[in-house]
Amino acid sequence: MSEAALPLNDRGLAYGDGVFETVLVRDGTPRLWDAHLARLTRGCERLGFPAPQRDELDQLPARAPAGLSVLKLIVTRGSGGRGYLAPADPEPRLLVQHLPFAPAEARWREGVRVRHCALRLGIQPRLAGLKHLNRLENVLARGEWSDPDVAEGLLCDSDGQIIEATCMNLFWQRNGRLETPRLDRCGVAGTLRQALLDERSIAEVEAMPARLEQAEALWLGNSLQGLWPVTRLDDSDGHALITWTIGETHRRLQNDAQRLLGYPSLT
Predict the structure, then answer these.
(1) What is residue 1's predicted lDDT score, i.e. its pLDDT?
(2) Residue 219 class from Cβ within 10 Å (0-12 exposed, 13-18 middle, 19+ buried)?
(3) Fewer C-beta neighbours within 10 Å, C or N terminus of the chain?
């Protein structure tokens, strides 16, 4: 298993048969590294092929350019097999990319406007939580809006329960309690989400989207951008449902995320 170009018969290209990670790296030091590698390994195991060796992966962040960057890791099952039938002895392929990165700092400070999406996520517990290569639902959902003032779209599953945003996890505070959607049937279990769950008392819940309109505060977050406080939530037609003013409640959880990712605290 090694870094390689992607041939046309790769199963990741043909079928989305693989997993990926996007890791924040600062001057060669990765953030939430153990969590990223744990999820990568878990994804490979659940799909049924071996994960890259830890010592091989541990060498990659040091190759990043100086400053802030993103290390993208893609692991596919490799080539072979017949149609959907996977090869009995797969030879996984690891692809590595280093990209310059700058977070959207204005969104930390000013917050964001988000909307509900019409698309519904399919329920598939065997893939729930994984960052697998089958991301067509997210692509279609992101195509539902072009307004640059809308930062993200929120997704429900086919039963109507709120799950996540197109590329971020979702958190809210309701009646003083922090909550996040349960992700045992679909959705991506983010590494920042897990780090916050490990540090804070955050309940994993099943909730319909109307629950968000009862929240004192709402955030979106991932391991690259940190947490964005939400200041306005729209329906799927662009009509405002509720607005929030950023306050101390928003900043407390947001600053936990800032610290975990090595970003400055906010006031």
Answers:
(1) 46
(2) buried
(3) C
Q: Quick one: fold of 105-261?
A: D-amino Acid Aminotransferase; Chain A, domain 2 (3.20.10)
- Does the annotation mark 249 as catalytic? no
CATH class for the region spanning 11-100: alpha beta
Global pTM reads 0.95
* DSSP run (H or E) holding 198: helix 191-199
- Cβ pair 86, 11 in contact under 8 A: yes
Average pLDDT over residues 54-68: 96
164 assigned to active site: yes
Domain boundaries, the chain: 11-100, 105-261
Expressed in angstroms, the distance from the first to the final Cα of the chain is 46
Query: How does pLDDT run across 25-57, given as a tens digit for each residue?
Result: 999 999 999 999 999 999 999 999 999 999 999
Average pLDDT over residues 206-232: 98
Is 179 annotated as catalytic?
no
The encoded tokens of residue 244 equal 């929030």
Q: Which of 21, 76, 131, 180 is catalytic?
A: 131
Q: Determine which one of 21, 76, 152, 164 is catalytic.
A: 164
Query: What is the pairing mode between strands 93-100 and 112-121?
Result: unpaired
In the set 22, 76, 180, 191, the catalytic residue is 22
CB 144 within 8 A of CB 153: yes
Domain 11-100 and domain 105-261, same fold? Reply is no
